[in-house]
Specification:
Mean pLDDT: 83
Largest sheet: 7 strands, mixed
Number of helices: 14
CATH superfamily of the largest domain: Response regulator
CATH topology of the largest domain: Rossmann fold
Strand order of the largest sheet: 10-9-11-12-13-14-15
Number of domains: 3
Low-confidence stretches: 1-77
Shape: elongated
Oligomer: single chain
Strand content: 15-25%
Order of helices and strands: HEEEHEHEHEHEEHEHEHEHHEHEHEHHE
């Protein structure tokens, strides 16, 4: 058998007329195939031999072999590295894309990117908080290093599940008022296993909604306020107390109407219609957030000026909103998670009550309602949608 028939040849480089070639010997191991007549090849059959290679070309060929080996071992190394990445559990409603994005942006700013420098396991309840306990146990079973829980109802589900399963995973809660809702006893020194960020600090910010409506509607007498006594009992009680105290001072009567969870939105709006009110306030709760399109459409259909707790309602056709940026709170929560992953105990991280409030007015909606927004309101606005 000739050399051409016995070997497959790959030319890698040429230098001074000589070739660096790989030759694969046949299994039979013929005599004299490479090293001259009558001589046995010094290598076992089937091995690769390098012929007439200058030192520089030898290095190039060796590098090629090393690169091929690296490719073979890369998947195993990647899997090993992935196993060591910090794991972040997330339990939230996931109702507003820009809020979720703010959280991921906050993690990225602190060096944590899903699938690259961290593993993020997300469970979303939408507006159905009944699945909170089950999803909490699912997350805990994944053994994350820290869990983000939003809002307080889901944070309590995670804490309860940890107690049942005898686990102690740090929790960062984004809620309306972590102290007022009983998640922590002290904002400056939370202690225990939970810290968090307040979406709204203690105070009567909902009375600002009432004042705004009175400025826009000087003849305002009757106002409905949508609350959720199912999942936001403490917050709803605080809002009712604040509005009941402020209403007589401006000559207004407020009717608190309970949404009663996701299935109660329709009956709550029907109750608003029966009350024949002049305006409406939508208080902070995830149920109203999930049903925001329905609520905004109801207000438009009934020509009912409505004040909302978050600007996302106004960006989608609502009249006016006054409140803090929830997206900012999500971003701050990501910072707390980074601190915990770097070794800080959650009980040593103060609850963040700082808040920047924004007033947003939608003049397109005002025009549709045939409502003239006074200049006294417009000059206060942080954003006016025209």
């Amino acid at each position: 058998m000739s050399l051409g028939d016995a070997a497959s040849t790959l030319t890698l480089s040429r230098s001074r007329g000589r070739e660096c070639v790989w030759r694969r010997l046949p299994r039979s191991g013929p005599r004299g195939s490479l090293f001259g007549p009558g001589l046995r090849d010094p290598a076992p059959p089937g091995l690769l031999l390098l012929r007439f290679a200058p030192s520089r070309l030898l290095l190039l060929c060796a590098a090629a072999v090393a690169g091929a080996a690296a490719l073979v071992w890369a998947p195993a190394l990647s899997a090993e590295q992935t196993a060591r990445l910090p794991r972040i559990g997330v339990l939230w409603p996931s109702l507003v894309d820009q809020w979720n994005k703010a959280f991921y942006d906050g993690l990225r700013q602190n060096g944590y990117v899903d699938g690259t420098t961290a593993i993020i396991d997300v469970r979303a309840v939408g507006g159905n908080f009944e699945v909170g306990p089950k999803l909490s146990e699912e997350l805990i079973a994944l053994q994350p290093d820290v869990i983000l829980a939003i809002p307080s109802a889901l944070a309590k589900d995670v804490a309860d599940a940890e107690e049942r399963l005898a686990k102690k995973i740090p929790i960062v809660a984004v809620t309306w008022d972590p102290v007022g809702e009983g998640l922590v006893s002290n904002a400056a020194h939370p202690g225990g296993n939970i810290t968090g960020v307040a979406i709204y600090p203690p105070g009567d910010f909902n009375t600002k909604h009432l004042q705004l409506l009175k400025e826009m509607l000087p003849r305002l007498k009757r106002v409905a306020c949508l609350v959720d006594n199912t999942y936001y009992k403490e917050v709803s009680a605080h809002i009712k107390e604040a509005l009941d105290k402020a209403a007589p001072k401006i000559g207004v009567r407020v009717y608190s109407i309970d949404i009663r969870g996701p299935d109660g939105v329709g009956s709550a709006l029907s109750e608003v219609a029966r009350k024949r009110v002049d305006a409406m306030i939508v208080s902070p709760n995830a149920v109203s957030l999930a049903a925001r399109s329905r609520i905004v459409s109801f207000a438009s259909k009934h020509r009912l000026p409505t004040a909302y707790w978050e600007e996302v309602f106004v960006k989608e056709g609502g009249l006016v909103s006054y409140g803090g940026s929830v997206a900012d709170r999500y971003r701050l929560a990501a910072g707390d998670i980074a601190k915990i992953l770097h070794g800080t105990k959650p009980g040593d991280i103060p609850v963040d009550y700082s808040m920047r409030f924004r007033l947003v007015v939608n003049l397109q909606t005002a025009k549709a309602l045939r409502l003239q927004i006074p200049q006294s309101v417009l000059i206060q606005a942080d954003e006016v949608i025209r």
